[in-house]
Specification:
single chain; 8-stranded mixed beta sheet; 9 helices; 16% strand
Length: 261
């Protein structure tokens, strides 16, 4: 019996400036389950976009109350510290706003209520690009696929289509002046290798990424080993030995999109 064939998508390489031009990026809304998720997955790209004038908003589903290595620290204190760490990291990256939702760390699920909160943020910010964790499990490195990451990705994808563009979905939001609109692009981090179809050259921003990760001081038993691992991942992702971050780019709506199938 023949083994199944894993098909890899063609990978497009882009610089941040090219990506801005190709996707028409003015605003990015990033979603993550925990503080530090976006810094591991996409902070160099976001720093580069921010330096090019793109407005970046980050929405965290949880405050990371189940994270860290200090058994004496209460979940409430952990959540407070981690929220502060994320705000400090956001300053390094150039993220202009951090929004914190109230999901419980370790128990995130793509419920009707959570999808509604995601739709609320999308309609409020009206981004050109939505960035999130990927909803599919990556078997090449399972640590990318914490269940909360998968649930975050699923909630975001469900919100991006069809909820955010359907005026009959979450009608209370329309009543609050948050009108339906169409998301054009998704950038999904932590994707399974076979889904990666875009790498962004982040040369010159790798140190900003490390600086942002350093702000999450409660999360690193061995900060030097973490830095080495992150740089190695960036080098491996780049086709010719530089530094790059990887994404699954999904076009949700463009000039060729029609309703239905």
């Amino acid at each position: 019996m023949r083994a199944p064939v894993t098909r890899h998508a063609p990978v497009r390489e882009s610089t941040p400036a090219e990506l801005i031009d190709q996707l028409g990026i003015r605003r990015v809304l990033a979603f993550a389950a925990h503080p530090d998720d976006v810094d591991f997955g996409a902070s160099a790209t976001l720093a580069a976009l921010s330096d090019h004038g793109v407005e970046v908003t980050l929405c965290l589903l949880t405050a990371g109350d189940a994270g860290g290595f200090d058994p004496a620290r209460s979940p409430e204190e952990t959540a407070r510290i981690r929220a502060e760490e994320q705000r400090a990291a956001a300053e390094v990256v150039g993220i202009s706003e951090v929004v914190l939702l109230t999901e419980r760390d370790g128990f995130v699920a793509p419920t009707y209520e959570l999808i509604g909160e995601v739709v609320r943020q999308m309609r409020r910010v009206r981004p050109d690009v939505v960035l999130s964790s990927h909803p599919e499990r990556a078997w090449d490195r399972l640590q990318k696929s914490h269940p909360d990451h998968l649930a975050c990705g699923e909630a975001v994808v469900r919100a991006a289509y069809p909820a955010v563009e359907n005026p009959f979905a979450y009608p209370e939001l329309t009543g609050q002046g948050l009108e339906a609109f169409k998301v054009r692009h998704l950038l999904l981090m932590g994707a399974p290798a076979e889904r990666v179809n875009l790498t962004v050259d982040v040369g010159g921003f790798e140190q900003r990424k490390l600086e942002a990760l350093d702000r999450h001081f409660t999360q690193h038993r061995d900060a030097e080993r973490m830095r080495g691992f992150v740089l190695d991942q960036l080098r491996t992702t780049h086709a010719s030995g530089g530094y790059a971050e990887a994404f699954h780019h999904v076009v949700v709506n463009d000039e060729d999109t029609i309703s239905g199938f």
